[in-house]
Amino acid sequence: MTLQKFINSYEKFLKLILFVMMVALAVTVLLGVSFRFAGSALVWYDEVAAVQLAWITYYGSAYASLKGAHISVPSIFKAFPLSLRKIFFVLSKLVVYGFLILLAYYGYLVLTLITGETLVTLEWVPQTFVQSVIPIASCLFILSETLRIPEDYRNLVLQTSGVEQTGDI
């Protein structure tokens, strides 16, 4: 399997996860509103919808990273000579990886601390399941960042792409 085929498969995987989560959130909200309108509010609706929205945010961040859609300032790279662009590129990647590794590590540590805890309104749903999104999405984010290295290097360091990066401000 080539790198591009893997990237395409990974992108489809993230899109599928996000699609399923967004449909589930829409169904949850529709059920919550309908039952509330009928006078029989679902006690779990708010908590579950908030968790679903957080999950969409985390997994969506990994997808946005894969697409190069996070905010960036490529014009700063353009102001420096090639040798400095290379250094800044490596430093920027190290900072991002450092943050994501810490997020994954401490996200995992949180899971070990909340073992046995459950959602308030759905006592059969463990908090470890809910909070597992943090280390999992962090690892997916790391994978997305890694898969973007060749394209980011071409665009930011070598400046061979004629297309401006999405997140330019």
Please give a structural write-up.
The chain is 75% helix and 0% strand. The chain has six helices and no strands. It is mainly α. The chain has one domain. The longest helix is centred in the first third of the chain and has 35 residues.
Strand content: under 5%
What's the overall geometry? elongated
Helical stretch tally:
6
Indicate the percent of residues in helices. over 70%
Which characteristics define this entry?
169 residues, mainly alpha, 6 helices, elongated
Secondary-structure map:
Elements: H1 3-37, H2 45-67, H3 74-78, H4 82-113, H5 127-131, H6 133-158
Helix pairs in contact: 1-2, 2-6, 4-6
Task: Offer a quick outline of the entry.
This protein has 169 residues and is mainly α. It has one domain.
